[in-house]
Automatic annotation (TrEMBL):
This is Uncharacterized protein. It comes from Xylaria curta.
Amino acid sequence: MRLLHADSLIIHDFTGRAVPPYAILSHTWGEGEVSFKDITKDRATGLKGSAELSEAINSMYRWYREAQICYAYLEDVTLSPSLKPNDATLEQASFSSSRWFSRGWTLQELIAPPVVVFYSNKWTELGNRENLRETISRTTGIDARALDGCLSEFSVAQKMSWASKRKTTRIEDEAYCLLGLFGVSMPLIYGEGRKAFRRLQEEIIKQSDDETIFAWARNDAYGMLLASSPSFFEASGSFIRADNMGEDSQGQLARDSLPFTVTNKGVQISLPVIENQFSTRNRDEYVAIVLYRETGTGSTYTRYRDWLVPISAYRIPSNTIIQQILISTKAEVDEDYLGRSMDGRLVIIQPFPAILAPITFVRMVQPEGRYTYGSPHFHDDGALSIMSPPKYLLFGQHHEHYKQNPLVVVFRSSQGATILISVAPIPNQTMIATISSHNRNAAGRWCFDRAKHDISEHDRGRVVAKILASGPDTTPLSVSANVRDADHACIVTIQTI
């Protein structure tokens, strides 16, 4: 490491243990910044390539931790030297909204040093981390105990949540700025993008058996076990490790810490696996991720969407056992992967036949309850694709209606008729689709009632709708909806009869 002598302004190189006591500076980078090259006036001197840069970033947390004191310079905070720093004056000076609290690299610079002293842009002392700990905790979401250096008390998910709202200039630095916080090292590969954060999580897993690394939520993350960004953990600040789940030899819910590993196919892990058990109570002691089993694979699972499901201890079946399973860590889930489970299917609705009058998409009707569809994806050829709801959303007989909660898509013809396409799972079958046409504006509740009626008519063989043809001959045509259960999705085709 290099240290600048405060009196002589001479830069010294130190290696190994022969490092004198030193102070360290923290600030956010701005325009016109004085660089190391400016200080040395030597364009050939600096970080000597990627190896030295990698060493510096992997060592940065340790450098801040071993400093005697850290001076944090907040360039966007102004406090007159005549004012005494207190809650009122700091609020007036916008201390809590300083850019310093929103940057990725300053997280370790806040936590690692034994002492942090804050200064305004005029070098007026604002206070230190100890006497400002409550204000800093409210501003950053970091537990005040962590500001005292007690990091071992906090889970992976909690630490990730501290970085969830912080920004870095380079995408890769979202991961690299957290290396020291989690006590891991890894090579730096600028240009790898989001893969850096995935590699960080894999390195954490190699050293920690804390399953809260999977306790994140994001509504557009189908099938992903590992998060793509710290922002996925924004709501995970209260998640701690669950060390008491599963049945031991005496039939009690208890579990010692069990190791898990990253393989080339996913994460091999031993966890209590609870079949179709979802709690709806308000006071919950655990959260679970929702998995579905890949067809024909035995113990290979994939994460279903982004859900974190609350589970109360008293709702966990007494016979729950720990199973060793493989959870796929695919970065993205392709259509082939999505289509192999009835607990949520990719549904593709093909374009209407050209002979029919121009028909436009209006909306999807959201079901009642806790499940909501994502936005449909529109294809260039006029088709649209949607993820259907899981077949079993909640447990218990009083939630039986969720098993037949249809996917309802509303279209409208140029003549103003409402066209409903309904897709639903049927016991002992795959999926069925129905189509019906109505001369009315369809409200959500009516659409659902009508969709269930259409499904019951399907069982009786009456599945034909009447839709006007295009062109001068507007004779109503008989139209049916048919499902082809392909490997990658349920494909709904609209056909004239």
